[in-house]
Amino acid sequence: MKKAILTLSLFASAVSATFAQIPGVSKVTKALPKPLVGIKIGGNFNQLSTSASALAQNYKPSFLPGAFVGLRKGSWGIRVEGIINFAKYDYSFQSVSNNSLTNGTFSNVYLDIPVLLEYKIISRIWAQAGLQFSRTLSVKSVASGNEPALADPKSYFQPNAYSGVVGLEARLPVHLVLGARYILGFTDLNAMNTSVSNDYTNASGAWKARTAQIYVGFRFI
Fold this sequence. Notes:
This protein has 2 domains: 1-32; 34-219, Beta Barrel (Porin). Helix content is 14%, strand content 56%. It contains 3 helices and 8 strands, in the order H-H-E-E-E-E-E-E-E-H-E. It has an 8-stranded antiparallel beta barrel with strand order 1-2-3-4-5-6-7-8. It starts with a helix and ends with a strand.
């Protein structure tokens, strides 16, 4: 194994040296955008902003793993990510028939795909802004105490959503990155059908996601 690694290293060095001697190659290489590839993990703080009293207006913590690719040239860059977003929302639905309350927590999983424009403000500090597409992968209802879980909780949410993203990222030595973002949902996530809506007196109104994120990552290149 060591011999194989040494052989590959010597081969890569020889190829690099050969290309470096070809007229114009180094200039072309410098002119091309630099790639960015890495992985990340961090924490989410999620809220559904709404006038409906059925949903608690607090930021619930969860976590996110993801990966990113991008291109950068000078002070500008573009970046695309794939993130698995775990989110939790507390609910307390009031029944139309007897005014009883059904309490619990939605436990949602989303696939988030942000597309971001980046600008280097100062050395190692990049500002980010762009749009994010989200797909609802799963929704679970975790009831409080001995109460029953909600039937078909995924039907309470729209399957797709769009958001705006702003953030800052620090690109540190040894290929580490640290970042923070705020995601503002544009889509009304409330997708309850007529029969479900008629069961609760306090669930009507738009549900829009608000998310704060912090993360740490590693850049392979």
